[in-house]
């Protein structure tokens, strides 16, 4: 059993981690448990521009030494971090649930996913690096070597408080970069814990720097520092576009993951009970707060009546309630603001006379909302076009596969998609024809393993993939070397 040190206290706002030291800021902000808004979950430092400059200063100072550290040694730091996080899994999932309301089972799974990500990238750091090439000069050895980019700014969302920061920080740090880390306000507690674990694992001072605070106040300082080499961001399209524009006139490498409006197609020959269960999970688990969540489902008309009944039964059976209870399937939305957003879409559904096919049950308290399946929605409705980011699914009947594929592709987004069928030919036609970066056959639209690329097309991504070997490509640069013996 590993000895572990407690995370910094969240009672006094000492949540900035800069140059190897925990410190406070001139202002603070409070966070509250979305399952019970009367229950405070921490006081956090609201960083200012000066704190961001200090973080860049620390990252710059630490950069040369960390870049010169052998890759396998950096890998050992990630491996120790994985062990430490696994030893603290109960603390970590409870912290995550307090941050944004994810259920116990889902939150624990997310923390263990973070452990797996750390272990994957620890292993990657012992893999071959660079390439050799034949040269026309027999006396010359021609090769490439990989080098870190420099200082990376990682801006992460609230919906995966542990996994998304980990899949950015692990490769950024592992491949020799230093990092300025800005989490979403609602994920501040989990960010403090993850930073503490990485530091305890052996990161030198200044290699990882955490600035908690309000994104609207910090974006200029985060993107405006001339020492910034790369920006990795997951969040909304408008915010991502603003960040990209802020660095467009400089040689800053940019990685953006910007959400989705993910479709599932259910064909008449599918295993309908399994398809209903998978679509329900894709739409409702994690309270629909996943960029890969199923938002639209197109069902072949000859199977629509049976599928509707099966899906409705799945949704009505969901246990919505206390996220700390192991029996709960769906917890609250992450915040009162997110609750207001989702309710505005449900109000729109009522105003547009959409049919409510099924609803789950939810307490009329805190940030809870009932999982809802709608049908009879106009294809041009905002309900079909915009990312709701809540447990709201729209079902549409279609004549055949061709109509379903055309409707599925009729969106500005292109992150994930799914088809349910026993016909291998139509499955492969879907794989070729869907306009999404991730494709699932007879699986829900959510989920991803750490060793494969993750990302979308169209409005869902900057086209720079995350995770797997794609992370190596993003977080390093290649140097070509001509080595001639004399």
TrEMBL record:
Aldehyde dehydrogenase domain residues: 23-481
Gene Ontology molecular function: any one: oxidoreductase activity, acting on the aldehyde or oxo group of donors, NAD or NADP as acceptor
Similarity comment: Belongs to the aldehyde dehydrogenase family.
Keyword Oxidoreductase belongs to the record: yes
PROSITE patterns, A to Z: ALDEHYDE_DEHYDR_GLU (PS00687)
Pfam families reported in the protein's UniProt record: Aldedh (PF00171)
Active site positions, chain numbering: 257
Protein name: Aldehyde dehydrogenase family protein
UniProt keyword terms in alphabetical order: Oxidoreductase
Keyword Lyase: no
